[in-house]
Amino acid sequence: MQNTVVLKVGMSCQGCVGAVKRVLEKMEGVESFDIDHKEQKVTVKGNVQPEEVFQTVAKTGKKTSFWETAEPPAEVVAEPKPAETALGTKQAEAEPETKTTEAVITTA
């Protein structure tokens, strides 16, 4: 299963880029990767799990997080208004609101 994992990695110099490159070259399942030093963006493609890629890159000691996109995930296009839920207005209003953070992950 082909996945694409996009991370934001704090890289201040070419040495940092080299450290990230070395760990990704050794990681099993990685078919290709791109490191954009200027944008601090690392894109990894292959038969990999997002959390494993995250943990591997984080072991370099560089600040690492999943790259966030501006658009909402395709599954969460619009949430129903409390009056439209099956729970009824009072119960729906009492439930806490949750936020979703999206990691860019694609499968082929």
UniProtKB/TrEMBL annotation:
<feature type="domain" description="HMA">
    <location>
        <begin position="2"/>
        <end position="65"/>
    </location>
</feature>
<dbReference type="InterPro" id="IPR006121">
    <property type="entry name" value="HMA_dom"/>
</dbReference>
<protein>
    <recommendedName>
        <fullName>HMA domain-containing protein</fullName>
    </recommendedName>
</protein>
<feature type="region of interest" description="Disordered">
    <location>
        <begin position="79"/>
        <end position="108"/>
    </location>
</feature>
<dbReference type="GO" id="GO:0046872">
    <property type="term" value="F:metal ion binding"/>
</dbReference>
<keyword id="KW-0479">Metal-binding</keyword>
<dbReference type="Pfam" id="PF00403">
    <property type="entry name" value="HMA"/>
</dbReference>
<feature type="compositionally biased region" description="Low complexity">
    <location>
        <begin position="79"/>
        <end position="91"/>
    </location>
</feature>
<dbReference type="InterPro" id="IPR036163">
    <property type="entry name" value="HMA_dom_sf"/>
</dbReference>
<dbReference type="GO" id="GO:0009626">
    <property type="term" value="P:plant-type hypersensitive response"/>
</dbReference>
<dbReference type="GO" id="GO:0016020">
    <property type="term" value="C:membrane"/>
</dbReference>
